[in-house]
Amino acid sequence: MEIYRRLYGRFGPQGWWPADGPFEVIVGAILTQNTAWRNVERAIENLKGEGLLDPWALLKVDEEELAALIRPAGYYNVKSKRLKAFIRYFCEKYQGDLGKMFGRPLPQLREELLKVDGIGPETADSILLYAGGRPVFVVDAYTRRVLGRHQIIGEEATYQEVQELFMENLPQDVELFKEYHALFVRLGKTYCRPKPLCEGCPLEDEGALS
DNA sequence: GACCAGGCACATC
DNA sequence: GATGTGCATGGT
Q1: What is the per-residue pLDDT for A26?
Q2: Domain locations along chain A
Q3: What percent of chain A has a predicted confidence (pLDDT) above 90?
Q4: Could you write out the DSSP letters of every residue in A86-155?
Q5: Whose CB is within 7 A of strand C?
């Protein structure tokens, strides 16, 4: 919580996730895998322009056509498959109804999402937290890097271990989880690239705990 | 031109 | 079970 206070004090509220609605969050979560958000925005603009930010429209669209539209987001063949895989699951099981899907018990829904081809732990948790408003802490590359640099976790820490560290030591507050994760990304972009740029980092002096 | 970005699946040992 | 590799565009 001390870390959160410092990050919030430095950067303020991040207001994540930047998207029009929950469905767009899900599409963005898949498209942004290992990809700069700027490139994802272009891909989403293309989809919007074609009226494809809609589950039933995406269900019908040809996979190669979809790949061409999301090209700016990179890995476009892979991501086209992954989007289609999610959409098929979403339409078949929930009739494209977000309320229905997010109405399910959290642990079961998470397991389901993880079974969809192309949805791993971070994507699943991003969907649950930012599209579904469920209290799940999202762990990403920046989070691990920051925590690793400050010796709060080791290199070998698994996704689940890092996630539990937060979820067991923080109030189960959706807004807190959203802001905290976004703040880690914000911090990482400025001060915690693969090549350290620690000058001026708000966590410079090691005096922090969760 | 190298390096990096809000991962994940799959192959191989 | 532990590593290694492919996927690809666009910005610094």
Answers
A1: 98
A2: 2-14+137-191, 22-131
A3: 93
A4: HHHHHHHHHTT-HHHHHTS-HHHHHHHHHHSTT--HHHHHHIIIIIT--------HHHHHHHHHTTSS-T
A5: A 34-36, 38-39, 42, 71-72, 74-79
CA-to-C1' distance for A53 and C3, Å? 38
Question: Which nucleotides of chain B have an atom under 7 angstroms from any protein CB?
Answer: 3-10
Place of tokens 């920051």: A146
Would you state the pLDDT for residue A155?
84
Closest-lying nucleotide for A33 based on CA to C1': B7
Token couple for A137: 């802490």
Residue pLDDT, tens place only, A73-107? 999 999 999 999 999 999 999 999 999 999 999 99
DSSP code, position A70: T
Alpha carbon A181 to chain centroid distance? 9
Backbone region of residue A94 per phi and psi (left: phi > 0; alpha: psi in -120 to 50; beta: other values): alpha
pTM strictly above 0.90: yes
DSSP string, A84-100: HHHHHHHHHHHTT-HHH
Instruction: Provide the 10 A C-beta neighbour count for residue A111.
Output: 11
In the predicted model, is pLDDT for residue A210 greater than 70?
Answer: no
Per the CATH hierarchy, to which homologous superfamily does domain A22-131 belong? Hypothetical protein; domain 2 (1.10.340.30)
